[in-house]
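Lecture notes, unit on protein representations.

Consider one protein chain, 408 amino acids long.
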Amino acid sequence: MPFSLFLALKYLKPKRSFTSVVTLISVIGVVLGVAIIIIVRAVMTGFGDMWHEKILDFKPHITITAGNGGVIENEEALCRSLEQISGVIAASPGLETRVLVEHRRRVSAPLIIGTDPRRAPRVMKLDRMVAGTFDLDGDAVVVGVDLADELGAMVGDDLLVYSPMNLVSKKDIYLPERLKITGVFDSGQRDFDSGFIITSIAVARDLMGMRSGVYSIHVKVKDPQNTAKFKRIVDDIRLFEPHYTVRTWQEIDSQLFNALAVEKNMMVILLMFITVVAIFCVTNTLIVLTVQKTDEIGLLKALGFSSRQVMLAFVLHGWIQCLVGTLLGIGAAFLVLENLQGLVDLLAKVGVDVFPKSIYGLAQIPWRVIPREVADVAVSVILFCTVASFLPAWRAARMDPVTALRKE
């Protein structure tokens, strides 16, 4: 074993002394810093994944519009043509507008989506029906679970849906539509569960005073997160229908995903200061150690050990502390993440609701660990800790053996 490593391990042996306590505190500081950063990054990544999943399940992957508020008249033929493009799973006509919904003197203003009842199951993934079925035949409507709770409605109840055209048209009067709730869905995302209701194209047209046509075509593809394949499909659609406006799900919800990315990066930067504090603790431990071991350092240099060997011993001492703290921090992070939902549920039982759906919009706290991010954290902490160990190690290496032994 190299002498420098032997000396570093010797100084790390636990003893009932002040230095041992400081060393233990330094390691714990590194453990907490690493664990917190990994947990936060995993949760923020999980948030992004969950938003991607919910948006891709509920919303179309590609939206085709006529532009300038125009109407698409040949929607059925266009849908059939789009479904012939390689990679396209389904296409469905769509009408969207804001409406007022009343039930037992309770009023809400969701966005109503008119879609083709035959194509809707292939375009919208709403397989989590908490009540009823996804049935849009006739004057039927499917609502989210949070909107149903807000209105105090259930399957079989009638909703009065008021058209926004009464505010636009001064000559015509649009009577409210009485629609029957046939199903209640739970997407797991509050914005969708409280802000949308789904009905047929025919009902949406009646509410908007239209006899034919739609405002958009909604397209679903096989793998919307495969960048290369998705871009090829979008390019094919744009070549096929050059006079229409084609927008992807990334473009429509770009502000949301950009905000999540910025928030994740800012959280990591702020939490890195915790690790920096822990690294300063390691530096402080080495400074105390060099002061306590002044006589030993002087004796080693008097016996012929080089300044490089002494310096490397103290650098390894700090490096090993960081390595142990980093490994324990990674283990602690995975332990917390594996039991994260259980911890959240336990706190909720005692009255501390740390993850309410009304605020975060998700039914459960998501997380996903990216190995590269864990590696980045580990390498950064060890690198910073090694650099921070050089100052006290350099002080020890520069120590004059005569002066050190005279102090003893």
